[in-house]
Design goal:
It comes from Paracraurococcus lichenis. This is ParA family protein. The chain is of the alpha/beta class and 263 residues long. It has two domains: 188 residues, P-loop containing nucleotide triphosphate hydrolases (Rossmann fold); 50 residues. Helix content is 46%, strand content 15%. 43% of the residues are buried.
Length: 263
Amino acid sequence: MPDRPETAAFGSDRGGVGKSKAAELRISRHLLEHGRLPAIIEVESDPRLAQIYGEEAVRLFRIAQDKLVDLERNPSLIYRMWDQIGEICMSAKGDVVLDIGANLTRTFALWLNEYGEDGPFGEGAPLIFFGVTTGDGHAVQSVNQALSYVAQAVPESRRCIVINERDAQFPLASDAPAVRGMMAAHGLAAVLRMPACMSPGLPHVVDRHLRLDEAAARPVAWWERECGLSRLEAVRAQRRLIAFLDEGTRMFDPVYGAVPEAA
């Protein structure tokens, strides 16, 4: 198989677990290392990355919410879209970040399974799949299924769990029985922990569709003036957002190695 660019895919068939935020942190890491955006593909009923980076930088495939049930019953309905995505991944000049919306990981894996080693990722070497979950039991079950689908379809892919730490009500330890079971069953490359963002400025970042790297570079005065925060709140907003961005990009170190200091 000829060399193909690497695709980092983020998925789980449960919504609201932080897939897009994890993908955004991967994009931020790519910016930190290379000074430019990777190729970005978003498959969503409620797109976020396209709002953040703009539709010129993001290839958006919008799936209507009311079509998801039909797609679950007949995954072949979406194969034409996956074919287009496969062509983008194969023709990309560099790394690709693929954000897979809820209830679509199974169709992605079924599509890959049909092509086998002749598919866009061959047996899987150019693909890294990040299954994202909180500690909620339904989310853990969903990511376990998603990892199983991908392992069967592209056995040589690297597969990782990203544990979103924002859900303090349902903490999930890296050595919890469920996590150990998934590591053994799916041959996981790493268990990553996505830190919770404690910045009081995060809602303003989300509402304004700001890039994390650009928001973190805003001065304290901007947080006061534009977001209506007090001086001390503005300082916390800036410093905690910088810390979140730093921790969030470094969570990928077990997969990609440490970011060079000069980057």
